[in-house]
Structure formats: C-alpha cells, structure tokens
Amino acid sequence: MTVKCAISGSALAKKYDDHKGIFQNKQRSYWALADVSFTLMQGETLAILGEAGSGKSTLAKVLTGIENPTSGMLMINNQDVSSESDKNQIRRKRAIRMVFQDTLGSLNPSLSLGEILTEPLINLTKLDKQEQFNRVMEVIQLVGLKEEYLHRLPHTFSAGERQRIAIARALILDPVCIVADEPLSALETSVQSQIVNLMLRLQDELKLSYIIISHNLDVIKHMSDKVMVLSHGRVVEYGPTDKVLNDPKHPYTINLIQGEQAPLNTDGLDLDASVDYCVYRYRCSESEEICKTRKPMETVVDERLLSCHKFSGN
Amino acid sequence: MALLQVDNLTVEFAIPGGSVKALDNFSLRVDAGSYHGIIGESGSGKSIAMLAIMGLLPTTATITADQLALKGRSILDMSTTERRNTLYQDVSIIFQEPHNSLNPSFKIKSQIDETLKAHGYNNRKKRTQRTRELLSDVGLVHIDSILDSYPHQLTAGILQRIMIAIALACEPDLLIADEPTASLDPFEQGQITELLTTLVRERNMAMVLIAHDLRLMREQTDYVTIMYCGQIVESGSKNIIFEQAKHPYTHSILASEPSNWNIPFKSKVPSLKGATPSLQHLPVGCYLGPRCPYAEAHCVQAPEPIYEKEHMTRCHFAGSIKYDR
C-alpha cells in the first residue's frame, strides 16, 4: 500500500504587527513563525517541542485555519490550500481539526454533548438532520462515550470524558489530521493513559495523522514518529523521534531535553526573519562570532535537519 | 510527640436529599522534618483533608475526628484567636493557583506586609527588611520592582515564589503545598519544586506535598499516601510504595506513569478501565471493585485497612496478587 502525504507545509511564516503609541502609529513586526517546513504522511505523528513563546501554538493556529500564514504554502492531500479564499478556508477547517489542553474551557458550557458535536456538521457540511444524528452517534461510540450522555452539559462530565468529547468533535468531520495542543497535561495520570490509548486506536483505525504539542518526552517517545524543535518560530532540529530525543545535536534541544533552559529573554533581540543571525545565539553557551552575523544553513546530520553553525561546515 | 497527628478524620457535606462523604477515615502522622507526599485523582479528598486541618472548610461541612492535633493540642476545639496564634503560626499552606491566592487590588508589598503584621512584626522597618529577605530567599531578583507591582503584572512563576515567601514568613514547622506547580509551565515546575525542597530541607521543616508527578514523589518524599474516592488505599514509606506496592490502584498508577512504559512503540499503554465514580454514587464494597482487574466476588464487602508495621493497605487480596513488573 502506498502511503499518501497528508499535510505538507513549506516555508510557512506568520508575522504579527504590534501597534504602539497613543495613536497606534508606531508599528513593529514580530515574526512568530519563519521558514517552517515539514511533511506528514497519512497515519504518522509529528511532535512539536519548544518552550513557551517558541511559536508552537502559532503553528497550530496557522494549520487549523484560525490564522492565515503571511507567506508559505500549505498542502493537504497534495492540494494547495494556502490562499485566503473561502473554499480553501473551509477545506482547511474540515481537514485539520484541533484538540486543546483546557477541557472545560474548550467546550461551550451551555450546549449539550449532542449540540457540541452537531455544530461543525451544521456549519461545514450539507448533511440533513437524520444524517447528522447518525454521524454523531457513530463518533460517540468511536471515542468510547455512551448514547445516553447526549443531553448532558460539559460540566457534568469528568475531565477525561470531556477530552473524549473534544476528540469526538475533532473527528466528526472525518479529518486528515488532528492537532493536539497539550492534550494530556490537564489530566490525571490514569486518565492520561486512557486518552493515549484512544488516540493510538483512532490512528490505527482511521489512518489519522497527529501533530502533538507536548512537553512530556516519554509520551512523545511513545507516540510520535518525528519531532520538530522550535525556537523563536524557527526550526532548529527536525527528524525521527529516536534520533532527536536520544541523541540531540543542537545546543537548544540539548538544553530543552535536560530541562536546563535559561529563561527566555527577548531584550535586544530583533525578531525579524530577514535579519541574518542564529536565533539562539544569546543563550547558547557555544555561540561564536559567526552566530551573530550569519543565519545558519539547514544541514542534514545523522538523518535529521539541523540549523546550527556547528554543523553547517562554515 | 508527632508534629501533626490525624486519626480517622471524616468530612461530610450536606447536599439536597442526604450527605456525601468527601473524606473517609483519613489518618496521617507528620513528624518534625519529615516529607510526605499525597497522590490521588481530583475528588479523592486530598485537598479536603488539608483544608480540614487548616480549618478552611465552609460551615456546610461536618468534620469529625478521633484525633486532630497539632503538637498535642486539638485543632477542632480551638477558637479563632487561638487558631491564629498557634495553627497559622506553625502551619502554612500554598495553593495551586497563585493568581487566585493573592488579592488583585493590592501591591505585593502590602500583601506580604499584612501577613507579617498579623503575626507580631510591629516595627515597620523590620517588616520591610524581612520582606526583602524572604523574597531573596525564594530566588527572586529585581525585588524593588516586584514589591511595587500588582499580581496581574507578574508571571505565575514569580507569583508562586511570592506565595512561598508569604508561607515562610512566620517560619512554620509544617508547610502544606496543594499542587503548587499545576498551573505553571513545565520549565518553571521543575524550578519551583526544587526551590520548595531545598527551602524545606534547609530549615528542617516538615512538608506535606500534594502532586501528580510520581517522579517528583520518588525523588523527594519520605512517606507516600495514595488516595481514592476519599479513602486512603495505601500508605507507607517511599521505598515500600514504589517497590513493594500491594494495592491494585497503586500498582495501576505506577504502571500508567509515562516514564515506566517499557512497551513497544505505539502499542497499548497500561491503564485502568472506566472512570472514577462520583462520590454520590459510590460502588458497594471496595470502591475500586468495578475497575479492578483482580476483583473477585468477595470485593462487594468493604475491605478493612490492613497494617503491617507502617505500611497500610486497604484491599482484601493485598499481598496475594502477583504483579508483573
């Protein structure tokens, strides 16, 4: 069986404009994401690692269609969907769905389980009432909830059940990929493993792809095929999980995995994608003169993509 | 004499049409300088137990105990003034949400000042000096700007450090930390727990830590208590709990910890089936019964706690179940 390419992004970038001053007339731009490229096959899992402020959530927003990329191309099933037309927006929203960390905050407190699950069907499909009902029932059983829960409100469920509802809502449009932003960290240990089992089973049954944003290295090791490490919106290391996590090469990844990260300090850091330097140079213990003047080239070292002067041969 | 002695503490809440037992015969003995860990899911009663000890439960709660004593003095009989002078002087508590624990409309300066004032620091100069001392003890820099800020201007990590400083203000003998790192981001979590442990060990204080992080428990604590549905299911010294656990629930949470997964890539992860029952609809007999993989017909009768020196287990088959590790 040939494996299809589910999602691919090339040179994705997102710029935010920050307006300051009394009349909002001083403009400063901030590249939250620059030059991010990846490919994700059907049934594969990509984990995204990085500290707070490294652009993980921006990437998730760009993929799920909450934000539009400033530049770059996003392909779903080999179809370009990066333009801002309504048709592409709907395609993106149907193909890439999201699951959040805060289980209570991500569900509308005044809608029942049935209404929560029907909403995407009303907005993004043309199914009639009976078909909608059938689809809801199908998904409820798929994620291990019971039919009699249909009229209950979110606060009456436990955290684990609410995360199942969030996954069901993501599944209901039959997506290509689910982006999960810290799906486990708000749950207790015993519930965590239930949700991991559910996600693995769904991936196996439906040939789903996952993009998982997580800090839990053990979970990443168990679930994901590839890891992408982000720092200041730039990819610093990207490759197979066992290579990146067991033998990290980039100084940033090494610090991140050992948990000895110096605190984020953006003072004096001009975060413009066009500027030539290494984004990690201020906090890197091995930084040299070249790191301040030239942007590191992406190099393939030991099956992974690295952007660091140490390895680029300069 | 133990610093804190709790025997059979039970907390009941009145609800429409009856009452619900949030805590069922909770016992704990904390000696001076010892480090205790409590593990349990939400609703297992771990926070309720700590609130009951601190006298912070609402009046709708009925608290009964064979013994609830701090340094030999019964806490339940204390008046409010006595509480302030003894209990709150000797025991401090840190909560999960630093944002909710601090008053949003006062500067940090006056909030630390308030605590010191209430506990006998009458000289203003001494209070200012002590405030600075406390903040530098918890590893904060730029103290001037922090003192002059409101809580919303600071990050959760800094606020939690301030909460720790306030908790240490009276040099308590016992520090209770109720999931102190749950609302912080993972890189700060490590720093805060490390700070707490060093502070506690340095000052030879006793500590009761409520947390989900099993790795942390294994590294830091001396004694561990495991709770389920308001009951203690197993308690004992750290080595016994992590190496010779007898209760199926303890075993299941140890097995479901991600760092203990020694299984092939993308294969099924060990987990207990089903969900924790609500306290209003508890199963008959052993509360774990319907979810327990080792349950037998006998489990419809409630198990009595079995003591083996300091190791307590609440299971009919404790010791006879063989776990493959």
Task: Give an overview of the whole structure.
- The complex is a heterodimer of chains A (314) and B (325).
- Chain A is α/β, with parallel strands linked by helices and 314 residues long.
- Chain A has helices spanning 56-64, 86-95, 113-124, 129-142, 159-171, 189-206, 217-223, 241-246, 251-258, 289-293, 309-312, and strands spanning 5-20, 26-41, 45-49, 71-76, 79-80, 96-99, 177-181, 209-213, 226-231, 234-240, 298-301, 304-307.
- In chain A, strands 6-7-8-3-9-10-12-11 form an 8-stranded mixed β-sheet, with helices on both faces. In chain A, strands 2-1-4-5 form a 4-stranded antiparallel β-sheet, with helices on one face.
- In chain A, strand 11 and strand 12 (304-307) form a beta hairpin.
- In chain A, helix 5 runs parallel beside helix 6 (189-206).
- Chain B has one domain (4-313): 3-Layer(aba) Sandwich (Rossmann fold), CATH 3.40.50.
- Chain B has 11 helices and 13 strands.
- Chain B is globular, with a radius of gyration of 21 Å.
- In chain B, the strands form 2 sheets. In chain B, strands 7-8-9-3-10-11-13-12 form an 8-stranded mixed β-sheet, with helices on both faces. In chain B, strands 1, 2, 4, 5 and 6 form a 5-stranded antiparallel β-sheet that branches.
